[in-house]
């Protein structure tokens, strides 16, 4: 198993502040936990915690995230955005992944609302945002990103039908270092655009595979079904119920209903 070549990453990194401090671990429980300790100790914004393996990786809604050693990207960014920009991170992150996939492999990925990156009908990447907020101030937020790069998803029966990797799509291995550098480069550019009012929401909307689909959305104890018509200016999903009424959903777990 080849460890990440950090020198190769640094040669391709074009950022000013994202990833300029890298905390690299061969194996951790979760990069989120390491990043939290770093943030509490005053780590500068843009610090990236990176691992070759997670033994207790987690995704949204408390789900486990398969994290085999030396195959994929598992990272967490330490960020300190203004409170009003917090939600934009879940738009920026999947866009950065999609851009990086296109730049390094030519693969065109879509986004399943709100922030899962899919290729075809299978998941390539997921995002987890955890925040520490006091009053009107974000002390820090931890943006976790997992990207399936070279994982053999066929070897994991429970993932074979629902997940994919860049290797699976291309039929060859992909240098993880190149994907990581591209991801961080695009993340910084998109994040700064988002803070400056750039057209990030429009690009995210254009990649949403959810729109125009019949969906089931679970949020809290509620379940809603209907047509995913659009998203609003805050990124909320606008769902047309079967009775004709419309609801704006801020966050939830979406299942696309296949015909």
Radius of gyration: 18 Å
**What's the average pLDDT?**
90
Shape, please? Answer: globular
CATH architecture of the largest domain: 2-Layer Sandwich
Q: How is the biggest beta sheet arranged?
A: 7 strands, mixed
Strands in their spatial order, largest beta sheet: 1-2-3-7-6-5-4
Class by SSE composition: alpha+beta
Oligomer category: single chain
Low-confidence stretches: none
CATH class of the largest domain: Alpha Beta
Distance between the termini: 42 Å
List keywords for this structure.
259 residues; alpha+beta; BirA Bifunctional Protein, domain 2; SH3 type barrels; seven-stranded mixed β-sheet; five-stranded antiparallel β-sheet; 6 helices; 12 strands; 29% strand; globular
Give a verbal description of the structure.
By secondary structure, this protein is an alpha+beta fold. It has two domains: 6-207, BirA Bifunctional Protein, domain 2 (2-Layer Sandwich); 214-256, Roll (SH3 type barrels). The chain is 26% helix and 29% strand. The protein contains six helices and twelve strands. The chain has helices spanning 6-12, 31-40, 89-105, 166-170, 176-195, 200-207; strands at 22-25, 48-51, 73-79, 110-112, 116-119, 122-134, 137-147, 214-219, 222-231, 237-241, 246-249, 253-256. The protein has a seven-stranded mixed β-sheet with strand order 1-2-3-7-6-5-4, with helices on both faces. Strands 11-10-9-8-12 form a five-stranded antiparallel β-sheet, with no helix packed on it. Strand 8 and strand 9 form a beta hairpin. Helix 1 (6-12) crosses helix 5, helix 3 packs across helix 5 and helix 3 (89-105) crosses helix 6 (200-207). The longest helix is centred in the last third of the chain and has 20 residues, at 176-195. The radius of gyration is 18 Å and the shape is globular. The model has no long low-confidence stretch (mean pLDDT 90).
């Amino acid at each position: 198993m080849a460890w990440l070549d950090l020198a190769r990453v640094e040669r391709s990194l074009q950022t000013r502040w994202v990833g300029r401090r890298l905390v690299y671990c061969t194996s951790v429980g979760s990069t989120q936990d390491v990043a939290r300790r770093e943030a509490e100790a005053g780590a500068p914004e843009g610090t990236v915690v990176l691992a070759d393996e997670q033994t207790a990786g987690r995704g949204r809604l408390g789900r486990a995230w398969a994290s085999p050693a030396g195959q994929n990207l598992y990272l967490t960014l330490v960020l300190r955005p203004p409170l009003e920009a917090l939600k934009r991170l879940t738009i920026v992150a999947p866009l950065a992944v999609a851009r990086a996939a296109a730049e390094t492999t030519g693969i065109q990925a879509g986004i399943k609302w709100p922030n899962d990156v899919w290729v075809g009908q299978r998941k390539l990447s997921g995002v987890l945002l955890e925040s520490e907020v006091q009053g009107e101030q974000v002390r820090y937020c931890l943006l976790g990103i997992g990207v399936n790069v070279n994982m053999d998803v066929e070897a994991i029966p429970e993932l074979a039908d629902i997940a994919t990797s860049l290797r699976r799509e291309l039929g060859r291995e992909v240098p993880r270092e190149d994907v990581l550098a591209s991801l961080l480069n695009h993340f910084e550019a998109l994040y700064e655009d988002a803070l400056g009012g750039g057209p990030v929401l429009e690009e995210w909307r254009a990649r949403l595979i959810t729109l125009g689909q019949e969906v089931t959305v679970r949020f809290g104890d509620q379940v809603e079904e209907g047509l995913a018509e659009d998203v609003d200016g805050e990124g909320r999903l606008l769902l047309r119920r079967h009775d004709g009424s419309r609801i704006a959903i801020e966050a939830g777990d979406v299942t696309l209903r296949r015909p």
